[in-house]
């Protein structure tokens, strides 16, 4: 099947004050592809995905989603276009239950007595249970338990399954395996693969080159706000990628 | 980084956590009824226990504590603080402070009295104008916090000073502190009384209970309530889910200010005078009521029921220390000491709860 | 045995100025200050060009009494064609010191101020006097500063007046307890008034209890009501040490079912509600403080010194009114 472009960012530039965070960056994700976005601190990864998720507006450049140009005025627009971001620390609300988090911003409601709006508890709990069992977490995670009582890996799983449940086509994961133990990292990586199998596209941002090689199809490297590397994972190596990150290797586009 | 995850862990308590029965299987070696489990773990359990303890203590020392006359007295005054505490609860839950409510409480009724006395309009109109002015104040607070990024503590500290100054300035120019006109339709609605035997209940009490019911429902049973909790718990996460956190915040500032204006108007019409000294220090009392009731100072969890308990508890303590005959000059000392003890107990119990939680997993 | 201090048709400022100038009617001469010599020296020197006076209250601008006093000072400025700068220290001593030192450096013709606590203004007042700027205190006195004169209530004397009122009419006796509610316990006014009360009650074996009610209207009502609920059968009388607690009297007594006159009440009477309570019988007698005089008269006296006229006597601005005489005060309060 010929790969179709899911999202295409062209010529993206963004400056903050006098500092150029991104300079004429092209970035593409094909449908059903897992792209690893790497780069050192300050390379511009976070800025790029903030633009893609609608939290920031670029100074220059265009974005198309499935070949249609889009202009995101805020995160709502990106979400409406099927782009879901899972940030570090900015995804789940610790004090709320798993169930309330899963439906955050998209709460199902009913009207009781004909007019009073009310959260649709039965739907929420049913769907939560379904989702949790899909993740294999139904035994240990209670939909009515607070997020704060979950481990890091469980939280990531909840966040990812939320993204999948709401049929986001493109899921952006910002450093999802930071601070996770071995088991939990394995679980997150296997979810990423499952998401791809379910037809989602994924952008996976990380520092950890080894994790990247376990799941991604293609690797993109940013350095000092520029796209310096765009290679299929199968055609490169950890050493080459590291050289691209640190700048020893010149631009490599394959 | 967000507040550390495990400091506020309770399982089945108040809005944010379980709203429905959870079938906790008892940990091995322990057999507790699930219902009892749920009740004890609720954040409101401790303030409620303190309230019961306080009532029993005061009553046993002086039976007049529970006399209808005394209860009538407590219920005349407490709702005026309570109405403000309800708004403050939701605002705290969304992660914001409003230190200006005391000044709103003082300024709005002054405005109402001046309009009613000098512009010769019906009191009802004057009250509506006053509440509209309160809404504008809340809007200004909200915009300064959300669009200009200044912390709510500082913004509302400034508006508090401005309003307090305005109250004085305006009353210097219009020194009449009482209402000239009477017999307006709105008066019984705001300050009318209902007599049940020897129990005298003011309208303010019904406003308080009614608002508490509505706001509790909003917080726990509606999507807007979920947005309030998320905005206070993790503002960026809420924003990334498409929740309009700025609108939620501004809306709650407006609500808090309007409730402050309503409470002040009810109080001043009942007392019969609109002085700038009214409402002084109320903002801290009201925050204390919310926090003792179980609402978190850091945002993300709030309980209207808890605030209700906190309001009654603090009023009972203020009143009780007078009745049991503590030396007249020492009242504030005792009230402060009792509040401190209540907070220590609450913190201690929370640590125990967390310990039990971790062990259970 | 005060006559009604009002001229016919209301208080006339010019008439009062004339009376003051003649050193006559309505003023209680409490003795010539020991600093007469200094005062006369100041009289000689201060007849200079400056017509700017500074009037600084230690209180908060939102207090009704200061609003009226401020108006009095402003009216004096208008009537005497001089400039008066008024300010409020809002209970901040440092701020008040600053205000006075600026007045000194501005070469003021005279300074009028009130003392928040004894001794705290000693240094600045001495500084002013050394610069030949006369200082007159109003509302709350501090003789150790060496001020030229004091205009206002004698708070200790107020306490004595109230206590004697109750004793002389046999409303209290040995062994009784008298309730002394106050807005802020420990404030200097409370302390001085209580001292006056104690000087009468202690030798007679009459007990008293100072109770703080708080400064907010609704809050102080609630506290007083709580106290009365517990103690209405145990107190023989009430002396309200502040205006707010006194203005609460009628509503609080009504709420707990105490009838007018059942518990004798005396105290301050500068509020409309208190005057009304005197009319309805809840309050037997109340002390009027003439806050406008406390604003007006210091400026008059300072100007007199500037003009080379002598001034060095204290002016006590209080008068007790009761049901028979409350009429004039009510008119004034309602205007």
Give a summary of the structure in a few sentences.
The complex is a heterotrimer of chains A (254), B (361) and C (335). With 254 residues, chain A is an alpha/beta fold. In chain A, 31% of the residues lie in helices and 30% in strands.
Description of the structure:
The complex is a heterotrimer of chains A (254), B (361) and C (335). In chain A, the strands form three sheets. Chain A has a seven-stranded mixed sheet, sandwiched between helices. The radius of gyration of chain A is 19 Å and the shape is globular. Chain A is an alpha/beta fold. Helices cover 31% and strands 30% of the residues of chain A. The two termini of chain A are 20 Å apart. In chain A, strand 7 and strand 8 form a beta hairpin. In chain B, 68% of the residues lie in helices and 2% in strands. Chain B contains 14 helices and two strands, in the order αααααααββααααααα. In chain B, strand 1 and strand 2 form a beta hairpin. In chain B, helix 4 runs parallel beside helix 6. Chain B is globular, with a radius of gyration of 21 Å. Chain B starts with 33 loop residues before the first helix and ends with a helix. In chain C, the strands form two sheets. Chain C has a seven-stranded mixed sheet, with helices on both faces. The N terminus of chain C is likely disordered. Chain C is built from 13 helices and 13 strands. Chain C folds into two domains: 178 residues, Rossmann fold, CATH 3.40.50.2300; 134 residues, Response regulator (Rossmann fold, 3-Layer(aba) Sandwich). The interface between B and C is large, with 42 and 35 residues.
